[in-house]
Amino acid sequence: MRTCVGCRRRDEQSALLRVVAVRGPADTDRWTVVPDERRRAHGRGAWVHPDPECVRIAIARRAFGRALRLTQAGPVDTTAVQERFEQQT
Questions:
Q1: In a 3-state reduction of DSSP, which class is residue 45?
Q2: Are 22 and 68 in contact (CB under 8 A)?
Q3: Which pTM was predicted?
Q4: CA 63 to CA 70: how far, in whole Å?
Q5: Confidence band, pLDDT 50/70/90 cuts, at residue 27
Q6: pLDDT digits (tens, 9 = 90+) for 58-68
Q7: How far is CA 58 from CA 8, 68, 69, in A?
Q8: Roughly what angle, to the nearest 10 degrees, separates helices 52-60 and 79-88?
Q9: Which terminus of the chain has a smaller tally of CB atoms within 10 A, N or C?
C-alpha cells in the first residue's frame, strides 16, 4: 500500500502512478517531475492516482516537492506530469 501525495488516500501500488524528479541543466537548480511509468527510474519517488484532479491537488499543495525532498531547490516543474494526463483526455 502506498499513499497518494494528492488526495492522501492509501491504495495499492498498481493503482498509482510513480513520479520522480529529474535535474535540469547543469547551470540551474531546477527540477522537473516526470512520470515513471515502468517504476524503474533511480531515486526517490512519489505516488499519485492517475487522475487529473488528484494531480491538480498535489500541485496546489506543493506535495511533489515535499515528497521528493526538493524543498530547498526552489520551483519544481510539473508540466511533464500534467501533459501525461492531457494526452488521456
A1: strand
A2: no
A3: 0.84
A4: 10
A5: low
A6: 999 989 989 99
A7: 9, 12, 14
A8: 160
A9: C
